[in-house]
Amino acid sequence: MSGSAPKVRAEGSSIPASAGVGLRFQHHQAVVDTRPDVAWLEVHTENYMGGGTPLAYLDAIRRDYPLSLHGIGLSLGSADGLESAHLQRVRRVVERFEPGLVSEHLSWSIADGLYLGDLLPLPLTEEALEVVCQHIDQIQACLQRRILIENPSTYLRFKHSTIPEWEFLAAVAERTGCGILCDVNNIYVSASNHGWDAAAYLAALPANAIGEIHLAGHSVRQLGDRRVLRIDDHGSRVAPAVWALYAEALAHFGPVPTLIEWDTDVPPLDVLLDEAAQAAIYLRPLQKEANDALAA
Amino acid sequence: MPSLREVQQAVQRSVLLHEDPVAAAYIVDEGVAPAERLSIYRNTFAGSLTTALRLSFPAVYRLVGAEFFTAAARIFVHEQPPRSAYLDEYGAGVPAFLARFPPAASLAYLPDVARLEWAVSRALHAPDVEPLDVARLSDIDPADHGRVRFVPHPSVSLLRVDYPADAIWRAVLVQDDAALAAIDLAKRPLWLIVQRSPSGIEVTRSDETASRFAGRLLAGQPLEAALDAVDGADAPSLLAEHLRAGRFVAFSVGDAPAPPPVPQSPK
Questions:
Q1: B28 vs A125: CB contact, 8 Å cut-off?
Q2: What is the rounded distance in angstroms from the CA atom of residue A199 to the CA atom of residue A37?
Q3: Are the Cβ atoms of B32 and A122 closer than 8 angstroms?
Q4: Interface test with chain A among B56, B79, B122, B125, by most A beta carbons within 10 Å
């Protein structure tokens, strides 16, 4: 009860190069009750900005698991600047939970002070690169830590974009010192929607900047005339082709903390743990190699 | 070449106002038409915010059904989009929207249920603050009692409703159709105190006199002003009940600033 109560933390707050799952409200109780065997957990920062039950659960969970905070609301690419009240809310959540990783998206969500409820695509121009880098600098200064930036899944491109997305990400990492959260499903979805070479996209990312990988399911929307758009809805198991791309990603980047995300029609926790176990099968030989290299 | 701000304003007009031409002209037109691509984002906007409103207004959702709720929410989210991604704060305008939404006119009690649910939602997400330690009140000089002002717990709100929104809300959420059918829907003012306690959300009925007393205290007026409002009522027991229920977090005497509330530490 007292303000001086010592904080108890899962041993080692850093996120291991193992498989974790995205924790949503419907699994709070199951995680507290069953303490599942999973290496780490990630939550959406925006879900823990008030008080009450969600925070009490996360306090309890944080005692047993390394935690990653994944933000969806800072709108890094907004021409209008960052919403300082929101940045302060993020800072308070980071201070309270001392996460191993903090991440956000290469996208924008706010224009003229209105929130558009989605991670919208940026025109990939020098102007946007300046804006994004300046905002990442501002966030990293406020939080006094490095953050990771996730590549988006997109359904449109702007005619006046001049920088390929992979080069844009590499430039952001280079200029700000931030890391990259490589969402392999997003690369697959965007590459399919825009006719890019997903393997070449992966290969172009700076391996030493990759701090985390995301995996999730997507859906396929038929638009007539055999045209197809892939939609990143996080509502199913990881697609076989995305697992194959994940194997390529690990070959490029080495073992990286890998997260299973699921946000629509969220299944029982066991299904998420099963997907994480699948990712662990890919990670294990690389972890062993890394350990052997350290021991040698 | 459009500036970043021009692109974002054009996409915003597409998402919020369904005005696509300016944004569409900026988008690569290959295979799938730009307007069709933009519609994906518009649908996500409406869908994700409708989900947020459904979570904040679960009894309204059950009362009107999925189809009605979704249709009403789609209009609301375009009329009053959120100001930030902290969606726990989104939905304050829903009760007033429903009160002037013609298709809901036959459900006269619906805006009151929405007002109660908004108060409940605010209470659920309010910051964690320690209730006032009542023992500290004994330090006050009795001559100063009338000048004491209280700081309400951030989860507490007082509302006046014209229909028994609390009974409807409970019956709907536990899906007790018999209890729902037995509610007298006659228009009659009621006062409700909503708060979050350690055991969960509490909704307490209050009468007109007691609510006037509570309203003044919760507004930070001095105790003497609250006592003026209750004329003959049992003020000490009313005050004791507010303190017991943990509805205050701090106090001050006269015009002195109240000390900052104590954040609740993780249990």
A1: no
A2: 32
A3: no
A4: B125
Pick A50's closest partner by Cβ from B45, B46, B88.
Answer: B88
Domain A19-295 sits in which CATH superfamily? Divalent-metal-dependent TIM barrel enzymes (3.20.20.150)
Question: What is chain B's alpha carbon radius of gyration, rounded to the nearest angstrom?
Answer: 23
Angle, helices B208-218 vs B223-230, to 10°: value is 170
Nearest CA in chain B to A107: B8
Point out the residue among B2, B5, B40 whose CB comes nearest to the CB of A155: B40
Nearest CA in chain B to A222: B32
| pLDDT tens per residue across all 267 residues of chain B | 999 999 999 999 999 999 999 999 999 998 899 999 999 999 999 999 999 999 999 999 999 999 999 999 999 999 999 999 999 999 999 999 999 999 999 999 999 999 999 999 999 999 999 999 999 999 999 999 999 999 999 999 999 999 999 999 999 999 999 999 999 999 999 999 999 998 899 999 999 999 999 999 999 999 999 998 887 667 889 999 999 999 999 999 988 877 777 777 654
Residue pointed to by tokens 């459904």 = B54
Residue A58 · residue A96 · CB < 8 Å:
no
Give the ipTM: 0.93
List, in sequence order, every residue forming a beta bridge with B260; answer none if it has no partner. Answer: none
**Domain boundaries along the sequence of chain A:** 19-295
